[in-house]
Specification:
Helix content is 41%, strand content 11%. The chain has 18 helices and eleven strands. It is globular.
């Protein structure tokens, strides 16, 4: 299957490169698309023929006679999903061509309604816009882009349709996130999807960037060889961090004024250790229902070791900042600058930060996965930040069949055109500085999983985004873990009872 997928991606890449022309610097598309009209004049004659790489199972001859399917999307992130015109950038042009090919094939018009909703201050108004539109039964959108961590709340409140059993959506196809139906459906209900329809999930993949020149200066050795040997663990990170650190101001503390071995660049990145250390807060019982099980000896040990990493390891710094909080962006950017200048060896990140923050870095930079808990853990495991895109189908959608057909066709087309353009070309060629980094990109993609407690976090009492951070910032977390057990169990069971009774 992996060989087949590689062949498919290679074919898609060759076709995409042929269609999109030269590899130029990325531009930024206009995010202010009018929600009133949502229309864009397109030259449909520019659409390229469909690739023969992998086909969806939509019936031949579907024709929706020019009807519109409207996608609501967060305007700050619009370039990962939609563009009105070809720009010369290989990724944006792939998105443009993909949309055109689906419109031509299905006789439907894809419209985008862009609204601010990604930055922290815009999230509540964005949610209010979605809820008010659905409550008013208007036609502002059919599909709504929502942070995947919020999707379960829209499901609970009955604002979206059940996607399981939809006549045109096939979750067994590779353009949907693996395990979407098996891991995320509750009581036969699944109200959100994610995958190749948007670059969001790929761009938000947790990773670590490092400076090879800084590693050489400190005599660190070959970090890629450590990963390849299966020895990239929390202990190894601590060992390397101490070697590559210097208390520049002599105050006995580790912060952005020092030379750091390991930086947690965003408090949201700390959740990446939930995946990488193979933490299971919930497991399915014999009836297929998730039960809260966190608190084993291993779980406690993981938390203790993460505390030791950030509070007892020379050169390691948890900055407790976020790039989605306006007031914290300057300090966040200052730490980015320190990495670019060679003062930080390793920095947690999301994959797209190579594009967003490191594109003008003169020194080469390398790429690593998040570390395993220990060398007994067999596999590297990767998750994506839960702020990434997912789509819900509004309960007010007038034509769910047409909306589903367009979603299926666009997901398949993006899998064929857009993902290869971004992953194989933009990331591996433009932004990956060496062949080993390109190989690490493959490792990240192949090891990415969906994590139930992280995805459903806001619906089940914040076991990850609230409690996990407290666990790993506490020297002795056992009592705190036990004290929170009853609350998490009760909140989860209440949510499950609502979903079980929901008639959708």
């Amino acid at each position: 299957m992996k060989k087949l997928t590689s062949i498919i991606l290679l074919l898609a890449l060759l076709l995409t490169c042929t269609a999109c022309g030269g590899d130029t610097d990325s531009g930024t598309p206009d995010a202010d698309i009018s929600p009133e009209s949502g229309e864009a004049a397109r030259d449909t004659t520019a659409a390229e023929p469909e690739s023969t790489a992998l086909k969806d199972n939509l019936p031949d001859g579907l024709d929706f006679s020019g009807k519109k399917v409207t996608f609501l999307y967060r305007s700050e992130l619009l370039e990962e999903f939609y563009t009105e015109e070809a720009t010369g950038d290989i990724v944006e042009d792939a998105i443009y061509q993909s949309i055109l090919s689906v419109e031509e094939r299905l006789g439907a018009e894809i419209v985008c309604n862009a609204q601010p909703g990604h930055m922290l201050a815009a999230r509540a108004p964005y949610k209010k816009y979605i809820v008010n539109s659905i409550m008013a039964d208007d036609d502002s959108f059919d599909w709504a882009d929502v942070m995947i961590a919020n999707a379960g709340q829209y499901m609970q409140d009955g604002y979206c349709m059940n996607l399981l059993g939809h006549k045109y959506l096939d979750f067994e196809m590779p353009w949907y996130a693996g395990g979407l139906e098996d891991s995320m459906a509750l009581y036969g209900k699944l109200c959100f999807l994610t995958g190749s329809v948007s670059l969001g999930s790929l761009k938000n993949t947790y990773c670590i960037y490092f400076n090879p020149q800084t590693a050489e200066n400190y005599g660190i050795g070959d970090l890629y060889a450590i990963v390849d040997a299966g020895d990239w663990t929390l202990d190894k990170v601590m060992e390397i961090s101490e070697k590559a650190s210097q208390d520049v101001n002599g105050d006995g503390k580790w912060d952005g004024e020092d030379k750091l071995g390991f930086l947690s660049h965003n408090y949201n990145h700390l959740y990446g250790f939930i995946g990488s250390c193979d933490i299971r807060m919930f497991e399915k019982d014999a009836d297929g229902i998730y039960r809260y099980v966190f608190g084993s000896e291993r779980d406690v040990s993981v938390c203790e070791k993460l505390y030791k990493l950030f509070h007892g390891t020379p050169g390691a710094f948890d900055c407790n900042l976020s790039d989605t909080t306006e007031s914290e962006v300057p300090a966040f950017n200052a730490l980015t600058g320190s990495f670019i200048e060679g003062n930080i060896l390793m920095m947690t990140a999301q994959l797209d930060e190579a594009v967003a923050y490191l594109r003008d870095m003169d020194d080469p930079y390398g790429l690593l996965p998040f570390p395993k808990y220990d060398d007994k853990q067999e596999d590297y495991i990767t998750i994506s930040r839960c702020a990434h895109n997912s789509f819900i189908l509004a309960a007010t959608c007038n034509d769910p069949d047409m909306a589903g057909a367009v979603m299926e066709a666009l997901s398949a087309s993006n899998y064929d055109k857009v993902f290869p353009a971004y992953f194989e070309t933009a990331m591996k060629v433009k932004y990956a500085r060496d062949l080993d980094s390109a190989r690490m990109l493959d490792l990240l993609r192949s090891s990415t999983v969906m994590n139930f407690e992280y995805i459903y976090n806001y619906s089940i009492g914040n076991p990850t985004i609230d409690l996990f951070l407290r666990y790993i910032r506490t020297e002795n977390p056992s009592s705190l873990i036990e004290a929170s057990r009853d609350k998490i169990t009760a909140t989860t069971e209440k949510y499950f009872s609502i979903i079980e009774a929901l008639e959708i």
